[in-house]
Amino acid sequence: MAISISSSISIVSGTSTPAPSAFSPKAKDFGFSSLFSSSTNTLRLNFTHNNTCSAASKSRLARKKLSRVQATILQEDEEKVVVEKSFDPRSSPEKEGEGTSGEPPDGSSSGGFEKWIIKFEQSINIFLTDSVIKILDTLYHDRNYARFFVLETIARVPYFAFMSVLHMYESFGWWRRADYLKVHFAESWNEMHHLLIMEELGGNAWWFDRFLAQHIAIFYYLMTAFMYALSPRMAYHFSECVENHAYETYDKFIKSQRDELKKLPAPAVAVRYYTEGDLYLFDEFQTSRPPNSRRPIIENLYDVFLNIRDDEAEHCKTMKACQTHGNLRSPHSYTDDDALEDDSECILPQTDCEGIVDCIKKSVKEPSANKK
């Protein structure tokens, strides 16, 4: 029994007798040098592949267990919801310790240019978000439910735009990642129920609010689809900014209206969505949590707004994760049954591209490579 120990992984291999070397005199005398060389290399490659897959599987299972522990801690105190931002809007990624997700390594000229692009994209997003916030503050400073109705009408739009572009990529064979479509649909489903709650509370009573929200949504859809086609990272960060504003708005509201909200009954649509029926889609959009780790209790209107606020925090986390290309995965992909069997490192890579320019480049290069 031979034991090989490295700094991070211990591998135990059951070998009995070392195979003759391709350069040994005995191998040369019997003419078996090529046979021993090929068989030894094959065994070595297969053994390395199996151990790599096994190590990757164990590592993924460990990460899954860690995430479950973190989710349990959060569940014990739902008041403490942390929203992680990409970086301080008024600071440069170079000045931050970690910077934005998906940054290239430091020390290269291309990396410095990429950081500048990231800063430029996020500066535009922050300017656009701040402009919309000022308009909403002016129109809805004393009408909370109407403001929430407009916010939820707008909040659904990016996920429609993401899915539209992803379906186009899928049709052309440029990008085929089912997890993105599943998670974005679940996010739109969650935002739709937020909208139904606000409608039941009377947020859409005035025609002007409906007119404004619907026309902003049309413009927002076209802008987001165009942005997502050019730079998914920029589109995801813009959506993160919008979701972060929604989180802060609801957080401020429930803290100032806590006592009044606890005296009011919860809308029926909120009780059905959070506590009844199949909660698969409710778990699907919360990519930072394992399924079944969050089950809200709805007793009054305060509980409803508390959970809406927490939903927005989960959207922020998912949008931040999406800014690292190819990083998003459905939480239902990690189950007890296939944790040890599903090894993404052992599967052939899927069709992949980032933005329409990259997709067209790769579609042109791949046919020429196949001809060779």
From TrEMBL:
What organism is listed for this UniProt entry?
Answer: Buddleja alternifolia
Instruction: Mention any one GO cellular component term assigned to this protein in its UniProt record.
Output: membrane
Compositional bias ranges of the Low complexity kind: 1-13
Enumerate composition-biased segments (Basic and acidic residues): 82-98
Manner of cofactor binding, per the entry note: Binds 2 iron ions per subunit.
Q: Which GO terms describe its biological process?
A: alternative respiration; carotenoid biosynthetic process
GO MF terms listed in the record are: alternative oxidase activity; metal ion binding; superoxide-generating NADPH oxidase activity; ubiquinol:oxygen oxidoreductase activity
Tell me what this protein is called: Ubiquinol oxidase
Compartment(s) where it occurs, according to its Swiss-Prot or TrEMBL record = Membrane
UniProt cross-references to InterPro entries, sorted A to Z: AOX, AOX_sf
- What EC number(s) would the UniProt record show? 1.10.3.11
Which Pfam families does this one have?
AOX (PF01786)
Keywords annotated in UniProt: Electron transport, Iron, Membrane, Metal-binding, Oxidoreductase, Respiratory chain, Transmembrane, Transmembrane helix, Transport
Cofactor entry = Fe cation
**Catalytic activity as recorded in UniProt:** 2 a ubiquinol + O2 = 2 a ubiquinone + 2 H2O
Which residue ranges run through the membrane? 148-169, 211-230
Which residues lie within the region annotated Disordered? 1-23, 82-109
Recorded family membership? Belongs to the alternative oxidase family.
